[in-house]
Amino acid sequence: MALHQSAEYGxxxxxxxxSITEGAFVENLKLRFSKNKIYTYIGEVVISxxxxxxxxxxxxxxxxEHVGKALYQREPHIYALAEAxxxxxxxxxxxxxxxxxxxxxxxxx
Length: 109
What we know:
By secondary structure, the chain is of the alpha+beta class. It contains 3 helices and 4 strands, in the order ββαββαα. It has helices at 22-34, 60-66, 78-92; strands at residues 5-6, 10-11, 39-42, 45-48. The strands form 2 sheets. Strands 1-2 form a two-stranded antiparallel sheet. Strands 3-4 form a two-stranded antiparallel sheet. Strand 1 (5-6) and strand 2 form a beta hairpin. The radius of gyration is 14 Å and the shape is globular.
């Protein structure tokens, strides 16, 4: 379970929504986005809503906050997913794959 869930910031993991409907999912994303929370989990999947501006989310300090932490020990972030994939790859000694999908020009790089 994601640690962060509140009426103010919405549900950090959509799996925990009380109503599993498209409308509830979209409203949760809108609420989180309005509070500058661009990342939301769906289990081990990370959904990102592109803010089309620099929000200071990719600093060395934020990266260090995710090193050695499990996926749900921090707010949803792409660094958390990367750390989970790397940790699993090292533990299982097997290759892994992270799929990144989105519209052209949406900031996948």
